[in-house]
Amino acid sequence: MVQKVYDVKGMTCDHCVQAVSSELNDLPGVKEVQVDLPTGKVTVTSEQPLDPTSVAAAVDEAGYELVGGESR
Question: What residues does the HMA domain cover (predicted)?
């Protein structure tokens, strides 16, 4: 399993969390998505490393912005 942390800009409520989680969970190989709303950190656990472009597109589709790629 691979775990990556991303910074997402613009999330302000539980609906935001659900929207981002839903889009990221739809990516192939994603097993778990955890969102820390106060910090904007999104932790994604997947079977294989995810394509950064796909992650950014999923966050964009939810209506938010991926900031600077991975946090770690």
Answer: 2-67
DSSP annotation of 23 reads H
Which pTM was predicted? 0.91
Domains defined for the chain, CATH in brackets? 2-70 (3.30.70.100)
- Please report, for residues 6, 15, 26, 41, the alpha-carbon distance to residue 71 in angstroms, rounded to integers and kept in the order given: 5, 23, 21, 8
The per-residue pLDDT for range 24-62, each reduced to its tens digit, is 999 999 999 999 999 999 999 999 999 999 999 999 999
